[in-house]
Amino acid sequence: MLLNRPFPLDAPSRQSFRYIFYAALCVFLILVLLKPFGLDEIKTPLLLFHTVLYAGVTFICVTANTFLLPRLFPTIFREEKWTVGKELIRMCWQLIPIAIGNWLLTHWLYKNYLSWHNLFSFLWITLVVGIFPLWLNILLKQQRLLKKYQAGASRLDEQLNQPVILPQPVLSVPEQIVFTSENGKEQLSLPPGEIRYITAADNYVRIYFIKDNHPTSHLLRNTLRKAEEVLSTFPQFFRCHRAYIVNLKTVQHVSGNAQGYKLHLKDVEELIPVSRNLNTQLTEKVSRQ
């Protein structure tokens, strides 16, 4: 179903401010150029001031939603569960505080009577005007990213299936990788080839590996950064995501959807996500395996 398709959930960042500014600028230009809702009766200097205020309402409301909602509801705003439908709901919710803000601003500027009828009118107009471009933008973005990452995944699969003969490394590395707990009281020693991936689990890391031909895992109190340091002499290990380190030599297949690449590992059911900002590094790493 279209609404259940995966969709990228971008974390709030400085770039978010730029997109929000562009949205507010579009509101300003539409009001100045088209002069809807009786704005054509207002003289130019006052018109510019009023349209700046309406654009400011959009900027403030969207900024608050973009940065506050993920903090207030972290269990909801998780990319692995984000879909086209959730993105549409989020965008529609953005329109509601904008409509309420415009309703209050109109009362302040033009002394309009505050009533439920006027509020519902603002909500209706805002939703009708905004829903179609929002829906179209979400669909086009989902399709564009889906094609992009599916094509990239196919290229990575081709690289995985091409045998590459590498020269023997000059630096010898130990046959066992030793992971130590933060307090130094616990150790886990594993051959590099048995490790599949490592993931963060609060104040712990969970190491997934093969033991006696069966997948298993071990929880160790430490950070993913420390595990990354231990694995730094083994080029096949790659931190592909803020919460995952993966053994690239165990990757059997790469798939892609609108959220990015997913790594399919040997003897592992879970799909390992790849951060979109690490796609280039992943391609370079795979080509050297």
UniProtKB/TrEMBL annotation:
- Superkingdom in the source lineage: Bacteria
Which protein are we looking at? Answer: HTH LytTR-type domain-containing protein
- Which InterPro entries does this UniProt record tie to the protein? LytR-like, LytTR_DNA-bd_dom
Q: What is the lineage of its organism?
A: Bacteria, Pseudomonadati, Bacteroidota, Chitinophagia, Chitinophagales
Segments crossing the lipid bilayer: 20-39, 51-70, 122-140
The answer to whether the entry has keyword Transmembrane helix is yes
Q: Which UniProt keywords apply?
A: Membrane, Transmembrane, Transmembrane helix
Looking at the keywords, is Transmembrane present? Answer: yes
Per UniProt, residues of the HTH LytTR-type domain are 179-288
Species per Swiss-Prot/TrEMBL record: Niastella yeongjuensis
The GO molecular function terms of this record are:
DNA binding; phosphorelay response regulator activity
> Which PROSITE patterns has this protein been placed in?
HTH_LYTTR
